Amino acid sequence: MLQNLKELQKEDLRKEVLVLKADGYRFVTATCVDLGDGRFDIIYHFDKDYQLTNIRVTIAAEEKVPSISDIYFAAVFVENEIKDLFGVEFENLLIDYEGKFMITEELESPMRKKPMVKVKKGE
Amino acid sequence: MGKRTIVPFGPQHPVLPEPLQLRLVLEDEKVVEAIPAIGYVHRGLEKLAEEKDINQNIYVVERVCGICSFQQALAYCQGIEELMGIDVPDRAKYLRVIWAELHRLHSHHLWLGLLADAFGFESLFMQCWRNRELVMDLMEATAGSRVIISTNIIGGVRRDIDLEKQKFILNNLAKLEEELKRIEGSFLNDYTVKKRLVGVGVLTKQEAYELGCVGPMARASGIKMDLRTLGYAAYGELDFEPVVENDGDCYSRLKVRLRECYQSIDLIRQAVSKMPQGEISTPVKGFPNGEVISRVEQPRGEDVYYIKANGTKNLERLRIRTPTFANIPALVKMLQGVDFADVPMLVLTIDPCISCTER
């Protein structure tokens, strides 16, 4: 139901973002979704004249995503936030907080879905 | 080249009302670089939203930020309504506009007071916050509480505003408008105030656009962007134009917010006069499925909600991008090359809300 959704491979991401920037799009934000099976969706949102364009890149947990922070400076903080909360690594981040932008070191990717452990009463 | 020093500005700093830390690299009295560090009040609300059901989430998102709680709930409810294909009754749409604009009024007054406080104008600060009480009284009269009013539900609103309360709103707004005109002169014409604001922290139109600025910050740099023109709730039936200034300095940002106060008063008057009779909510059955992006214009700017649902009572993912987060890159850029003494003023003019930023 997302409007203007493009599903891309991570290799094509930067190329597409450069095209959007040349077209005069504004970077809105990026969203990371844990799919629960070791894969992550990263959805980039761009806006021009109130029209949203979304780019979805699906990656495996151990894969690195090319950073777009050198194209849009505003992406630096979003990418650092995703790195902190989900443990997704970005390649060539403009400013790398090394996982300490929002959280302290002892919390390890707190937004990731973890297997539920149910403890019965009395055990 | 002068001597370089690093000053950790905040999180507990007398002029900074928010727990934001800026590491300022100084060369003599000039700021060369600013590195923000946040995370002092991170509460993990996005994660909490995965545990609570779709109705409880309204209360979760209202606590993202107290000052704009109504708009947060509005963005969330509109997203769920779009997913489920619910038609909200017309009267509820107008009621939503009234409360949303009341929230904008009290947020802007709070900010005006803080700005006056930052440049050391104590009595003006008190005046602004006293005027804000007029709005708080309206909130209390119409919703029962002063800040987090919890009137939004999925499918409409919880409370109605009857004729008597409408009269009370209009009376208080008339008083507020008068008071605003009285304090406006001190903000706009005072020599010392101008000295602190004019030409400080200039952000050009292009910079503002490239850095993804939103809200009054973008409008003060000449970008005509206001999501209310999309016509969500009842905004499509009201007559208004986005407030735009072109200088891009602290003074412009002040002017934008001052003019927006008058705009909000006008919008509430229009909404009260045009509000139709009828139901205030539709009954809702079932659970949402799919993904959607919902956007509203908060007092600070564009608020983006990404909602992913899977047909159960819990959401798969709720992502909240609040306006302060979008304005931080511009703040970092603006701080480069300004005087150290202007830093508090600059940080304040983006209207920082760190509780929003960290959720």
From TrEMBL, chain A:
SUPFAM superfamilies xref list: Nqo5-like
Highest taxon of the lineage: Bacteria
Residue ranges annotated for the NADH:ubiquinone oxidoreductase 30kDa subunit domain, each copy included: 8-114
Listed Pfam families: Complex1_30kDa (PF00329)
Name of protein: NADH-quinone oxidoreductase subunit C
UniProtKB/TrEMBL annotation, chain B:
Keyword hit for Transport: yes
Coiled-coil stretches: none
Alphabetical keyword list: NAD, Oxidoreductase, Translocase, Transport
PROSITE patterns (alphabetical): COMPLEX1_49K, NI_HGENASE_L_1
Short name of any one Pfam family annotated for the protein: NiFeSe_Hases
InterPro entries: ComplexI_49kDa-like (IPR052197), NADH_Q_OxRdtase_suD (IPR001135), NADH_UbQ_OxRdtase_49kDa_CS (IPR014029), Ni-dep_hyd_lsu (IPR001501), Ni-dep_hyd_lsu_Ni_BS (IPR018194), NiFe-Hase_large (IPR029014)
Domain NADH-quinone oxidoreductase subunit D: 120-282, 287-359
Source domain of life: Bacteria
Entry keyword annotation includes Translocase: yes
Family: Belongs to the complex I 49 kDa subunit family.
Protein name (record): Nickel-dependent hydrogenase large subunit
